[in-house]
Structures are given as C-alpha cells and as structure tokens.
From TrEMBL:
Coiled coil: none
Organism in which the protein naturally occurs: Microcaecilia unicolor
InterPro entries, per database record: Cys-rich_flank_reg_C (IPR000483), Leu-rich_rpt (IPR001611), Leu-rich_rpt_typical-subtyp (IPR003591), LRR_dom_sf (IPR032675), LRR_TM_domain-containing (IPR050541)
Keyword terms of this UniProt record: Leucine-rich repeat, Repeat, Signal
Protein name: Nyctalopin
Name of the gene encoding the protein in the UniProt record: NYX
Annotated ranges, domain LRRCT: 329-375
Signal peptide: 1-17
Classification via Gene3D superfamilies: Ribonuclease Inhibitor
Length: 476
C-alpha cells in the first residue's frame, strides 16, 4: 500500500509543479516545464520587467526587449531561480538591490546592453550563490574595486568587448574565479599585480587589446592556468620568465603581435604545453634551446613571419610534435634546412614551404628541392646557375659551328663573280640566280651557262648535306 502511494505522489508532484508554473505566468510570456519551470518573455518589445513571475521559476529569459531600468527587487522573491537572462536590452541603470530576493541565482546574463557605463558597488549584493556573470559588450570603462566582494563562488566572468584600459582591480583576490574573458577591450598592460591571488584561474583571454607591456611575474600567482590568449596585441618583447610557474598551461597564443626574436627563457617551465601559437609576428630569429623543455607540444604555429632559416638544433628535442606550420615565410632553401625536407617526407607533419631564395629554386616548394652531395657526402646548396641559364651542349655547339661554316661557304660561292647579287636572303638569291639570262656570243654564253649549271648543282648538294648534318646532330 505504501509503495503504491509513493508512486502516485511521484507523478502528482511534477504535474502540480507544472500546473502552478503555468497558472501564474506573466501576460504574453510562455511558461514551460523545461528545467522545472522556465519563463520565456524574450522578443516581446517589453519596456519594463513584468510582474507576477511564478514562485517555482528556475529560468527567466527577457532577452531582446527594450528594458531600460531595473528597480530595487525588480523580480520579487524567487527562491528557485537559477538563471536570469537580460541580454540585448537597453539597460542604462541598475538600482542597488535589484537582485534581492534571488538567493539561489547561479547565472546572470546582461551582455550587449550598450548603455551600461557604470555599475554601483552594491549592484550584485545578495547574489551569494552566483557562479557565472556575463557583462560583455556593455560599454563599461571601469567597475568599482569592491563590486564582487559578496560573490564568493563566482567562477566565470565575461567582460569582453568593453572599454577597459586596464585589467579591472575588482578581480584581485577572487580565489574562486576559473574563467576570465577580457578580449576586445583597450587594455594596455598586464601589471605585476593585475592577476594577484587568482590561484584557481584556468582560462584567461586577453586577445585583441592594446597590450604592449607585460611586467615580470605577472602570471606568477596563476599556477593552475591552462589556457592563455595574448594574441593580436602590440607585444614586441617579453621579460624572461614571463610564464614562470605555469606548469599546467596547455595553450599559449602569442600570434598577431610584433615579436622579432624568440628567447629560450620564455617557455622553460611549460612542460605540459600542447599548443603554441607564434604566427603572424615578425620573427626572424629563434634562439637555440627555445623549445627544449616542451616535451608535450603537439602543434607549433610559426607561419606568417620573417623566418629565412630553421636550424635543426632548435627542434632536436621535440620528439612528439604533431603539426608544424611554417608557410608564409621567406625561406632560404639551402643546406641548413635540408633536414626539414627529410622531416616533411618521413613524417608528413609539415607542408607548404615555398622557397624565396636562392633564385634557382625561388617559388619552388621545399619538398621539390633537390640537394646534391659532394663526393665526400657533404650537402651542396642549390647552385645559382642550375636553372636560370642554359649552357649549350657539345652537340649544340658543333651544330652551330657547322651551320655557320656552311653559310659562309655558300656566300663565297654566290659572290665569286662580281656580277652576282649579294646573298643576304637565301630564297631570293636562288630565284634571282636561276632566272639570269645569257648574253654575248654563243661560246661565252655556253661556257657561262655550263658554269652556272654546275654551280647550281653544287649548291643543291651542299644544302642537302647541311640538312642531313643538322638532322643527325639534333638526334644526338
């Protein structure tokens, strides 16, 4: 009997909760049983927060409305509310105490409210269970230093696409913070104390800012960091030991900066690093030993730099590298990178390496370059004259000499009498010669005609011989 009653209560309780959620749904909103009780009021062109949310609500979606103002305790008392979304509204002012009555709220989304320029210190008072806060693209220039003092469990903070010129001091000491998104701001530097006491921070995104300076030991307190993005900034140099103690770092992105030389002191402690991006810089020199401790490296991006050479000694310690990206560099395909061609052929981990020099192989992919060996087995650089000029073969030279001598002989035969025309065009010469008329008496005419006939025959024979010689020489 008790088991039957338990089963009946198991089915009645959810049905009652769903009915209660739908019964007290605000006008024009949709209340569903999704996540126990979800209240969907998005895209209704609302200018203010509606009244009468069901007490059982666990999610409220007010995205893409026209709400401008949030009053104190704007949502009433909702003890079951876990997620509140106010993305894409026209919020310009949030009254301190707005979120009172939401003791169990875990996720608050207020992204893409372009008119929020200021937040009061007590804006988030009472949200002691908050885990994720999204304030991306809100046109914020700064936030009060103590604004997060009452959020002991906050783990994810999304501040990207605002107007911060420095990393907000409010995040210092947030020991629970694991993910911090600050990309696409106007941050100019990472100070030595910017990330102070963030011992649990695993993910930090600072890409697409204006960072030109990173102070020494800036990341020393972030010993659990796994992903660090510093790409697309203004960095030209890094202090030695910049990433010291980041032994758990898996991804480091330094692409899209102005780095020229890579120091072997930068990555010494990154024993678990898997992805390293150094692409789209101005790198022309990598110091020997730079990658020697990166035993976990899987992918290395060096494309779009100014590298001309890559000595084997730089890569010798990397045994397990999965992919190496080297395209868009002005490679000098000499013997110093012959090892790279062999690596391309043996492991197929790198491709697309067009040569810029020497001239004989310019534009040719390294995989197609042939490195010749000396009798002693030493590699020889591609010669500057292998393909750019053509040296006549002995046959071709002989052909040219015989042809020149035959032409000279023909000219002398045709010009042995002063009354014969100049032989400059062979076809016109033969035409003029065979059409000559005899003059004077018969004897002289007969003798001269006989001489002309013999000369004509000789010329035909010589032309045939020249043609035969030419054909035979061309076949050799």
């Amino acid at each position: 009997m008790m088991s039957v009653l338990t089963i009946v209560l198991f089915f009645i309780r959810p049905i009652g909760a769903v009915w209660a959620c739908a019964r007290s749904c605000p006008p024009h909103c949709l209340c569903t049983q999704e996540k126990s009780c979800s209240v969907l009021c998005d895209r209704l062109r609302l200018s203010q927060v509606p009244n009468g949310f069901p007490c059982e609500a666990s999610l409220i979606n007010l995205d893409k409305n026209k709400i401008k103002f949030l009053s104190e305790k704007a949502f009433g008392t909702l003890p079951s509310l876990q997620c509140l979304s106010l993305n894409h509204n026209n919020l310009s002012f949030i009254t301190p105490g707005t979120f009172k009555g939401l003791p169990n709220l875990a996720e608050l989304k207020m992204a893409h409210n372009r008119y929020i320029r200021y937040l009061h210190t007590r804006t988030f008072t009472a949200l002691t269970k908050l885990i994720k806060l999204d304030l991306a693209d809100c046109n914020l220039f700064n936030v009060p230093d103590r604004i997060f003092i009452d959020l002991p469990f906050l783990q994810e903070l999304l501040f990207f696409q605002n107007n911060f010129r420095r990393i907000p001091g409010a995040i210092r000491g947030m020991t629970s913070l694991t993910h911090l998104y600050l990309e696409r701001n106007k941050i100019e530097a990472v100070a030595y104390n910017s990330l102070q006491n963030l011992g649990n921070l695993k993910y930090l995104n600072l890409q697409a800012n204006k960072i030109s300076v990173i102070h020494a030991k800036s990341f020393q307190g972030c010993k659990k960091m796994e992903d660090l993005y510093l790409n697309d900034n203004l960095l030209s140099q890094l202090p030695e030991g910049s990433f010291k103690e980041l032994r758990h770092l898996k991804t480091l992105n330094l692409g899209g900066n102005f780095i020229r030389n890579v120091s072997n002191a930068w990555f010494q402690d990154l024993v678990e690093l898997e992805l390293l991006y150094l692409d789209r810089n101005r790198i022309s020199y990598i110091e020997e030993g730079t990658f020697e401790n990166l035993s976990s490296l899987v992918s290395l991006h060096l494309n779009s730099n100014n590298l001309t050479s890559l000595p084997y000694s730089i890569f010798k310690p990397i045994y397990f590298l999965g992919r190496l990206y080297l395209f868009r560099n002005p490679w000098e395909c000499d013997c110093e990178i012959e090892w790279l061609k062999e690596w391309m052929e043996n492991y197929r981990l790198v491709r697309d390496i067009p040569c810029s020099s020497p001239n004989t192989v310019a534009g040719v992919d390294l995989s197609k370059v042939i490195f010749h060996k000396s009798p002693e087995g030493v590699c020889l650089d591609p010669s500057e004259h292998n393909t750019t000029s053509v040296t006549p073969t002995p046959t071709a030279g002989l052909h040219f000499t015989i042809e020149r001598k035959l032409n000279s002989f023909l000219s002398k035969l045709l010009l042995h009498r002063g009354n014969l025309p100049d032989s400059r065009n062979s076809s016109s010469t033969f035409s003029n010669f065979t059409g000559m008329e005899g003059v004077d008496d018969g004897m002289s005419s007969g003798v001269e005609e006989h001489g002309r006939t013999n000369l004509t025959n000789y010329l035909h024979i010589i032309c045939i011989m020249a043609h035969i010689v030419t054909i035979r020489l061309s076949k050799r």
